[in-house]
């Protein structure tokens, strides 16, 4: 009688099944072909000739391969020591199957990898997928040199939303350009394309305005809790903008007004409209400050401020805040939003504001960022304005995970990692048509965090889930499947020394 055999374990080694990937965000379609491409010292990268931006994408990939594997991979030149090369070709294609600027197709074969994209942004999203497919460890037994085996097959992928963002509040606490760059590195790995910087609030003004120097000389020197604050010079800001652009991420500047303006009024008292003597503010209350919305000089000031920032912000948007102006009279608030919209447009930008801005008669090109009031999101869509979804109870990165969280607020409730993931942006606001949704953004307010480690504790892993909600089609969203892929991000997060919150709802191993 045959002995009872243990069930046969499915063996996939060397790894050849592309369907067993751990990609985040999950791609639209993956078709495995059950062989593998051996990434090795014999691999070279070629990019569409004469396209500087595609070349940069190739160089970016080579650099990341070096960090992960130690391999030196040539870009657009033959490897003289190893003339028989296996090619990764990053190709500009006008195929009609590439429906959005960020769509890409990956064809992984035994001896070559083809990445097709219409734009360099699409190619950049595609190389993030490739980075995630490179295994942590090489196989050293198949050949006389190490191979990193990438399972073969085809991937067709495109984003669900054109706008996938994170907001960072650098006003309540200041974050250095090095900290923001590290944040951008992590976000770009998960295909984010927008970083919204909240550059001013009651507690601080964080960007140099050459025509109004006291904004940073005075307004830049405070923060929540009484620390020294800080600010970006215009050169610093340009450096951030270009660092983000190398990652195909747009920076959206926000100057919050007419409320949240104590630091501006502290610097120039004529701006103040709340009738009180202004003192530095380092607490965390909201809603007590306002610009003097009836004075022409305030609009002349804003013309300078918006003009200077717009001129160093290549992206299409300027965010005017507009939230919680509780001490601005309603008619003054409406008048203010409508006037500032014209100034933003004069400087060549589309206005974004927190959802209260729809109280004004705003242009259909302006965008409302839904955080709190459903009626405002619906009103925006009736106005043919687009909506960015940032519902506080689901998408606020500054909410605590649970009662034991080391940092964070809880006014919108706790947001555990699974709750952050388990909602569908396309159906979340009842009655809001899909066509009105520009995308999603997760805001990270910084009342309770003041350095990169604390930032990472609140942002990760939740921001990885929002990346998937913004990119992957709704039918591909599944917590049980996602949480396994999330656990598999640990080697990357460790390599980047990200101090993520190791929630118990995920089996991190
Ligand atoms: C509300 S959301 C605010 C911010 C606070 C945040 C804290 C919004 C548009 N305004 O001023 O920092 O709550 O969670």
Outline:
Belongs to the glycosyl hydrolase 20 family. Helices cover 30% and strands 19% of the residues.
Outline the fold blueprint.
Elements: E1 29-39, E2 43-47, H1 52-69, E3 74-75, E4 86-92, E5 104-108, E6 112-117, H2 120-133, E7 148-157, E8 163-169, H3 177-189, E9 194-198, E10 200-201, E11 204-205, H4 214-217, H5 234-246, E12 250-257, H6 262-267, H7 296-311, E13 317-321, H8 330-346, E14 350-354, E15 367-370, H9 374-382, E16 386-389, H10 392-395, H11 417-421, E17 437-444, H12 452-459, H13 462-471, H14 479-487, H15 490-495
Parallel strand pairs: 2-3, 2-4, 4-6, 8-9, 8-17, 9-12, 12-13, 13-14, 14-15, 15-16, 16-17
Antiparallel strand pairs: 1-7, 5-6, 5-7, 10-11
Helix pairs in contact: 1-2, 3-5, 7-8
Strand order across the largest sheet: 8-9-12-13-14-15-16-17
Determine the CATH superfamily of the largest domain: Glycosidases
> What ligands are attached or bound here?
ligand TNX
CATH C-level class of the largest domain is Alpha Beta
- Proper CATH architecture of the largest domain: Alpha-Beta Barrel
How much β-strand is present in the residues?
15-25%
Alpha-carbon distance between the two ends: 39 Å
Number of domains: 2
Family: Belongs to the glycosyl hydrolase 20 family.
Domain Glycoside hydrolase family 20 catalytic: 161-473
Active site: 324 (proton donor)
Protein name: beta-N-acetylhexosaminidase
Characterise this structure:
The chain has 509 residues and is of the alpha/beta class. The chain folds into two domains: 18-157, Chitobiase/beta-hexosaminidase domain 2-like (Chitobiase, domain 2); 163-495, Glycosidases (TIM Barrel). The chain has 15 helices and 17 strands. The protein has helices spanning 52-69, 120-133, 177-189, 214-217, 234-246, 262-267, 296-311, 330-346, 374-382, 392-395, 417-421, 452-459, 462-471, 479-487, 490-495; strands at residues 29-39, 43-47, 74-75, 86-92, 104-108, 112-117, 148-157, 163-169, 194-198, 200-201, 204-205, 250-257, 317-321, 350-354, 367-370, 386-389, 437-444. Strands 8-9-12-13-14-15-16-17 form an eight-stranded parallel barrel, surrounded by six helices. Helix 7 runs parallel beside helix 8 (330-346). It is elongated. The mean pLDDT is 96. Bound molecules: ligand TNX. Residues 286, 323-324, 354, 371, 396, 398, 409, 445, 447 line the site of ligand TNX.
